[in-house]
Amino acid sequence: MAARARVRSVSQGISLRVFTGKLYTSLCVSNFPNSSVVISDEVSSALDEGRGVVALETTIVVHGLPAPTNLDVAASCESAVRMSGSVPATIGVLGGQVIVGLSTKQLELLAEPSLEAAKLSARDVGLAVGLGRDGATTVAGTITVAQRVGICVMATGGLGGVHREAQTSFDESADLTALSRTSVLVVASGVKSILDVGATLERLDTLGVPVVGYRTTQFPGFYRSDSGFSIDWSVADAREAAVAFLAHRDFSSTGMLLANPVAAEDQLDGELHEQALASAFNVARTLGVSGKEVTPVLLAEFARFSAGLSVTVNRDLVIANAKLAGEVASALRTSRS
Ligand code: PSU
Ligand code: MN
């Protein structure tokens, strides 16, 4: 206790000097006092009152969708959550502060290209805080922050996963491993169709993350309603999803993927999807991108090739996911009591 207290007071004015020897070890196990998570008043009172809260990510806004659609989609997702009776908590990092419940102005700032906000996965959030940076959080980054502040539902478009040719590139999104250790229910339209869907489902199995279809036993295909892969579980409504997640939490510390397919009438045409996919892979190969740039480059080429149709589908599905997440968050509240 005394050692901890001492470390805290010493590290108030932290300098590189403290990252040595014994002190370093103690610091690692103590709460870093300079760490900062700011929760907006609205989100904070919702959490206090036990209302439904839905975490929303910012990578899709900053790196996934083109301007000006990106900010419209973010606002529509927030409205969709509110219409479901829950409170949205859009998460990002500004000047080293993790903000849970970004205001419209803050989100605009984060999406400003000149800010060059980083793409923050789970492993990056602490570093962005420690080094005072700006960044948008991925699914992995967002659920890590969500769990830290007591939010257990999030919505996105498509989860990250195993990339095609991962056997040589080893490119597997940290969304998967983050979900395997973070007890958050993520609503998504499956995983992005740029990925190896079958391999991703196998990894989710290995990692102990349940995949539950919303009113379907076919795994959604992001821009398409059906990826062609079937899944074992499905729920009929938000209340069933909430009950299933609560029971899952009783036996496991992993998260859960609630897979919500885009409406059949809103999906991207099958042939156009195949052609856009081929073109996206070509562009990525020509540019020689790797790491965190792969997904944004593939999505951007999809948008260009389909003349914006993929963006419309992406918008429709992410808003529908935010709505469903809002319903689940509200149902969790009533199912608990
Ligand atoms: N869903 C979308 N568009 C996106 C993403 C999700 O409809 O851009 C983002 C999420 O932030 C997800 C990330 O975590 O893509 C995956 O990136 P990577 O493959 O580099 O892990
Ligand atoms: Mn990757």
Report on this structure.
The chain has 337 residues and is α/β, with parallel strands linked by helices. The protein has two domains: 151 residues, Indigoidine synthase domain (Indigoidine synthase fold, 3-Layer(aba) Sandwich); 185 residues, 3-Layer(aba) Sandwich (Indigoidine synthase fold), CATH 3.40.1790. The chain is built from 15 helices and eleven strands. The chain is globular, with a radius of gyration of 20 Å. The N terminus is likely disordered. Bound molecules: pseudouridine-5'-monophosphate and manganese (II) ion (MN). Manganese (II) ion binds next to loops.
Entry summary:
Helix content is 50%, strand content 13%. The chain is α/β, with parallel strands linked by helices. Helix 5 (69-83) packs parallel to helix 15 (309-336) and helix 12 crosses helix 15 (309-336).
